[in-house]
Amino acid sequence: FFCMVSLLIGGAIVSGIAAGAAGTGAFTYYRYKKKAALKGNQLFGVPLLALDKEYITEDDIPFVVDLCCNEVESRNMFIPVPWKDTFYDANPSAAEVNDECQKIIGLLSTKKRRKHRKASLEGITMQEVVEILLYYLSNLPEPLVNFAFFDDFISAQQTVSESDNFDEWRDTVVELLLQLPERHRAVLFRIVGMVSSLMQGMLDQKDRNEFLLAVSSKLLVVFMSPRDPTTKDNQQKMKEFGAPCFINMIVNYGALVSTIAMKEHK
């Protein structure tokens, strides 16, 4: 089953998500990009494709990303978590001053895999887990959708907004995703899949809408961003089409994954 975000959440919510996503998030992404070079660190701020194998899982995902996503999914199964508030309140900068977060970041930053296994997230809050994830993602030199593909994804969303041709959107986005570096695509799907699993547990449509708004306000700019976010044209693109494109991927995660799998199988 394939559905577009306009059918899911309505125009008012889309506008709210877009407005939030183009605000503080853009500042956060570019600020942390410049602060990433910690002495001796070979993980935070390092391009995904340049990471040493010691930091990567068998699924070609940075261990820090997989660890945080696993913790989120695990707690979601057993503990009631106010996910909307957790994402809204999460602040990547808090991970720099929180002693427990710094200990975990230190363990994850070393190239020794045995220390990675000691980086347990059980003793910190769910918000702190999300903050570590955001801290890593907001340090990446490029968003998961590389700068070179920004206008292509925006164009795909703009086209479906004008034509309501959902199949065309899916096929276009799948082709674009297949052009991304494999590691970028793997990380993107790991995060989108985690967010989608949280949304599936929300039965009330209003709760889903508010959750998507919160997630987009924090994750949009590490998912996709123009090379120059300061121009009015790029800011408008993010507001009108960036957030809906991101949310469409969350809502239609299963359809995108299965379509890509079929194409790769051929």
Features:
266 residues, mainly alpha
Protein described:
The chain is mainly alpha-helical and 266 residues long. It is built from 14 helices and no strands. The radius of gyration is 18 Å and the shape is globular. It starts with a helix and ends with a helix.
How are the SSEs ordered, and which strands pair?
Blueprint: H1 5-21, H2 24-35, H3 63-78, H4 83-89, H5 94-97, H6 99-109, H7 113-116, H8 126-139, H9 150-163, H10 166-179, H11 182-200, H12 205-223, H13 232-251, H14 253-265
Helix pairs in contact: 1-12, 1-13, 2-8, 2-12, 3-8, 3-11, 4-12, 9-10, 9-13, 10-14, 11-12, 12-13
Whole-number mean pLDDT: 84
- The proportion of strand residues reads under 5%
Uncertain ranges: 4-37
Helix content: 55-70%
Question: How many strands, what sense, and barrel or not for the largest sheet?
Answer: none
Topology pattern, helix = H, strand = E: HHHHHHHHHHHHHH
| Structural class designation | mainly alpha
Spatial gap, N to C terminus: 22 Å
Summarize the structure.
This protein is mostly helical.
